[in-house]
Design brief:
284 residues; 2 domains; 7-stranded antiparallel β-sheet
Length: 284
């Protein structure tokens, strides 16, 4: 009996994908069979898949818990004899590198679908997942008959990725920032939204859109500040390296430099004058 390898991720929130099975990745024009990255843009030896199975599942066993998205990347293009599938699973157990590659492959496929929602369905609030958004990951193999029923087959699971928790001082600063913003006591400019968009695009590897968002953000900030604060020049225009390509490290550094400058600008603003609370005289 043949089995299919899979990686299954559980998000901490619904991502808006309609439950069902989706064929993933036809061969790209000009690609040779060895170079085809049918699902992920990665070599097949690193991880790819042919089917994405999306289900809505509860976060916990309680029936009143809100549902979230479970996505399974099923490598239907390469069925394996049961013994070879078990060997492959043992390899995943012993290799953190392989597990990370497959988890990233799953994220990349799901994020391609999320991006399609954002662009084709004009939903600007459809946002990609990152490692920090995962409640857990399962790695396994399953028979083709059970694959589309949500069966686990033979698998092992990993919990959420080890994400550094913010320190107490960081949490206090976040709470202070939110409190000030809700009181109208902190300035937030529209150009900063574009700079934040540039950071997100850079983190997802979309360097051209990141560079374009950064340029637009800088121009808008110049207009909003009206010369009241000089913006620092970036390490290079739009994060471009000497050879004319976009250097991701330079681009991310330029984004951070601009965000730091805006933080310093906020500190120089005068404290708002708080109005005394309105007193209402009791009626007769």
């Amino acid at each position: 009996m043949t089995h299919l390898m899979y990686v299954r991720i559980l998000a901490d929130r619904p991502v808006g994908l309609v439950p069902g099975s989706y064929v993933v990745g036809e061969e790209r024009p000009g690609a040779t069979p060895v170079e085809v990255n049918r699902a992920t843009g990665l070599p097949k030896t690193v991880g790819s898949a042919d089917v994405l199975i999306v289900r809505d599942v509860p976060k916990a066993r309680e029936p009143d818990e809100p549902s979230t998205t479970e996505a399974t990347l099923l490598r239907a293009s390469q069925p394996l004899p049961a013994r070879e599938a078990e060997d492959a699973l043992r390899g995943w157990r012993s290799s953190q590198h392989d597990r990370d590659a497959w988890r990233n492959a799953a994220l990349q496929v799901v994020n391609t679908a999320v991006r399609a929602l954002r662009i084709t369905m004009r939903d600007p609030y459809a946002v990609e997942l990152t490692d920090a958004d995962l409640l857990g990951t399962a790695f396994g193999h399953v028979s083709p008959a059970d694959a589309f029923k949500g069966a686990d087959g033979t698998c092992f699971r990993e919990g959420p990725a080890a994400i550094r928790k913010p320190s107490r001082s960081e949490l206090l600063r976040r709470g202070e920032a939110v409190g000030l913003a809700l009181r109208g006591a902190v300035a937030m400019l529209e150009g900063e939204e574009l700079v934040a968009l540039a950071a997100r695009e850079a983190n997802h590897g979309r360097l051209r859109s990141a560079a374009a968002a950064l340029r637009a953000g800088r121009e808008l900030l110049d207009a909003e500040l009206l010369g009241a604060h000089d913006l620092p020049a970036g390490p290079s225009p739009g994060g471009r390296s000497a050879v004319g390509g976009i250097d991701p490290e330079v681009l991310i550094e330029e984004i951070a430099v601009l965000q730091d400058a805006m933080d310093r600008w906020r500190v120089t603003l005068p404290e708002p004058v708080e109005e005394p609370p309105l007193r209402v005289s009791p009626g007769p």
